Amino acid sequence: MRVHVVDHPLIAHKLTILREKTTPSMIFRQLTEELVMLLGYEATRDVAVEQVQIQTPVATTTGTRLRRPRPLIVPILRAGLGMLEGMVKMAPSAEVGFLGMARNEETLDIVTYAERLPQDLTGRHVIVLDPMLATGGTLVEAIRFLYERGAEKVTCVCLLAAPEGLATLEERAGEMDVDLYLAAVDERLDERSYIVPGLGDAGDRLYGLAE
Ligand SMILES: O=P(O)(O)OC[C@H]1O[C@H](OP(=O)(O)OP(=O)(O)O)[C@H](O)[C@@H]1O
Ligand SMILES: O=c1cc[nH]c(=O)[nH]1
Ligand SMILES: [Mg+2]
């Protein structure tokens, strides 16, 4: 596993507004999309391409296009859905599949409640989207699931990670071919396993249920 914390003033600026508890859902969604576009640009640097002959109005030339099979973008519902639009804008020819996972807030066990993915992921580069890497339980389950289906490579794009979650990922998926792109690594988890300082519950901030 390789961890890439993307250090860029625009990312730091947008992330700061995202963290503020007074930022309303509408702005939160917009900033999430913008952050994913910036992170997605970095995260797709090693996406496989092939050469293609094209005709410009002036001459024939050799260009580049994404190799088939196309990358598969997989947002982890619910909060990962807030990252989908930005990623699809960056890679419009990618395909999209879905994984619905939730952590039980008492036991922290992960429940996979939905899955809509190709049965066979052989040769596929999968780009997983989930804003929060807290204990790491969700991402470990997702990565394992995708490799069991035959994925060739998994890239994860998250906004925030806790050091505890990164350690768990290293321990349980460290041997796997995983690139993880992040906007920041925060201080720690609190007693409820929320990221500190974090941004609260990403799913709730994107899609309501706020107090
Ligand atoms: O690293 P972990 O400790 O597993 O926690 C991280 C997970 O928690 C959040 O989802 P949540 O379970 O709250 O579901 P939601 O997106 O539906 O809110 C988040 O989007 C991650 O998927
Ligand atoms: O801080 C956290 C931890 C898990 N899930 C979230 O949405 N936020
Ligand atoms: Mg949640």
Automatic annotation (TrEMBL):
It catalyses: UMP + diphosphate = 5-phospho-alpha-D-ribose 1-diphosphate + uracil. Residues 5-208 form the Phosphoribosyltransferase domain. Pfam families: UPRTase. Its EC number is 2.4.2.9. Allosterically activated by GTP. One of its GO terms (molecular function) is magnesium ion binding. Signal peptide: none annotated. 5-phospho-alpha-D-ribose 1-diphosphate binds at residues 78, 103, 130-138, 201. Pathway: Pyrimidine metabolism; UMP biosynthesis via salvage pathway; UMP from uracil: step 1/1. Keywords: Allosteric enzyme, Glycosyltransferase, GTP-binding, Magnesium, Nucleotide-binding, Transferase. Its cofactor is Mg(2+). Uracil binds at residues 195, 200-202. This is Uracil phosphoribosyltransferase. The gene is upp.
